[in-house]
Amino acid sequence: DAKKLVRSPSGLRMVPEHRAARSPFGLDEPPWVPDKECPRCMQCDTKFDFITRKHHCRRCGKCFCDKCCSKKVPLPRMCFVDPVRQCAECALVSQKETEFYDKQLKVLMNGATFFVTLGTSDKSELMVCRLSNNQRYLVLDGDSHYEIEIIQISTVQILTEGFTPGGGNTRAIGMILQYKVPGSEEVAQMKFTAGEDFSCNKKLSASWLAAMHKATKLLYESRDQ
User: Fold this and answer.
1) Quick one: three-class SS letters along 107-148?
2) What pLDDT does residue 89 have?
3) d(CA 225, CA 221)
4) Which residues, including other chains, have CB under 8 Å from residue 211's CB and lie 6 or more apart?
5) Partner residues linked to 190 by β-bridges
6) Which residue of 72, 87, 130, 223 is 20 to 30 Å from 112, comparing CA positions?
7) 112-121 mean pLDDT
8) How buried is residue 118: exposed, middle or buried, by Cβ count under 10 Å (0-12/13-18/19+)?
9) Per residue in 181-212, pLDDT tens?
10) CA separation for the pair 5, 2 (Å, rounded)
11) How many domains in the chain?
């Protein structure tokens, strides 16, 4: 998908030429709190003057002094080319998201193997499941082929095992995915179950499911914006 370099008050961004091609995990730039409505830092309440200058957090758009908004952190969800200034709270969130973009997104794109069951069927098919390179589709390949648009996903339930009443580690073993069928109001369902044949495959599947769980959280956040 073609992209273009644009300049906003917040910095340089590399964005898709067409909005329909944007990542489903992306966020829009927030409107900045107008300077005239912000005589004091919105964190520490310090009054702005010629010495204490005001700065806007690129993630939330609120107004802060330099001390409360000094960190420059990558913000790939808004397509910024370089790290941008963010308040302490937003910087912490963005830093946590960096792991998703640096590691878990690659896990999703590399894919994993699952037994996939459609709807209420009692038959399953062994399929390789992966996220497309443009992040917009979940691609399933086996004897059959499916492409599910990420924005059409309504719910994701991760299935786990290993829970004990006294606490303990759980391991992701599958998921139930519900999505809207394009062109209708129908909701379809797929169940993904990790194979039990090779321990290495189970580990890869668990990592893929954990990454999918994180991706789902980002997807919900983007929708709620």
Assistant:
1) HHHHCEEEEEEECCCCCEEEEEEEECCCCCEEEEECCCEEEE
2) 95
3) 6
4) 100, 103, 104, 105, 107, 108
5) 118, 177
6) 223
7) 92
8) middle
9) 888 889 999 999 987 654 557 788 989 999 99
10) 10
11) 2
| pLDDT reading at 169 higher than 80 | no
Reduce the DSSP state of residue 94 to 3 states and report it. helix
The domain in which residue 21 lies consists of: 3-107
Q: Which tokens go with 70?
A: 């000094």
Task: Please give the share of the chain, as a percent, with pLDDT higher than 70.
Answer: 93
Give the integer Cα–Cα distance in Å for 145 and 30: 39
**CATH number of the domain where residue 120 is located:** 2.30.29.160
- Contact in structure between 159 and 148 (CB atoms under 8 Å): no
Positive or negative, the CA dihedral 44, 48, 53, 56 is positive
